[in-house]
Design brief:
It contains one helix and six strands; from the N terminus they run ββαββββ. It has 95 residues and is of the alpha+beta class.
Length: 95
């Protein structure tokens, strides 16, 4: 997708690439094993000259691993990650 920014045409990254970058950010920020990752919404937003993807979803990760006589404990968190649509870099993340 091509967009006009500051009088010149620039190419945006694909939504799949933005979601892949968001998953990489989640893996870097979560030190435990990820059990389930569910992306609920992904949308393209424009604020002034900044074009970004807002990716929201839910993350289940293991806080206490499974042992011999105990069940594993899983914690659920919501996340929101903002990816710059021009460069593909993470602008902000809330996990």
């Amino acid at each position: 997708m091509t967009v006009h920014v500051g009088g010149e045409e620039k190419e945006l990254i694909e939504l799949e690439d933005a979601e892949r970058e968001a998953m990489a950010v989640l893996r870097r920020r979560t030190h435990s094993r990820i059990k389930n990752l569910f992306i609920e919404t992904s949308e393209l937003k424009r604020t002034g000259d900044l074009i970004m993807y807002d990716i929201k979803g839910r993350l289940d990760f293991v806080t206490r691993p499974k042992g011999f006589l105990r069940k594993e404990r899983v914690e659920e968190r919501d996340f929101k990650i903002t990816i710059d649509a021009l460069t593909g870099k993470c602008i902000g993340a809330r996990v």
